[in-house]
């Protein structure tokens, strides 16, 4: 059963109200539009003085929800941030995903950090 039909049936059966159904349908429309436009979600960790990012992850926006469940637990990402004391799990991924899902393009999250050895890092999450 397609997602639209399922939402309409939930409205008809009273499981959700019309306002919630409308919100879900708009979300589906925006997700489809994002796919057509080829928008991508990016997570980049840069180290001051380096020309290239020390870590870079980029994927189609449609996979954001799935990948975001994995990112906070990725050892490679954690290893770059371990010396800064920053925990990726502390990011409000739900809010970032909701912002991305409605088609917000540009920076969604930026954080500058300093390691215990005074190295400067920048964590940037954006959609383009």
What does this structure look like?
The chain has 128 residues and is an alpha+beta fold. The protein has two domains: 1-37; 39-127. Helix content is 41%, strand content 24%. The chain has five helices and four strands. The chain has helices at residues 3-12, 18-37, 64-70, 75-81, 93-101, and strands at 40-47, 55-60, 106-114, 120-127. The mean pLDDT is 80.
Q: What share of residues are in beta strands?
A: 15-25%
**Structural class computed from helices and strand pairing:** alpha+beta
Strand order of the largest sheet: 2-1-4-3
Shape annotation: elongated
Number of discrete domains: 2
- pLDDT < 50 runs, ≥5 residues: none
* Number of DSSP E strands: 4
From the N-terminal CA to the C-terminal CA, the straight-line distance is 31 Å
Task: Name the average pLDDT.
Answer: 80
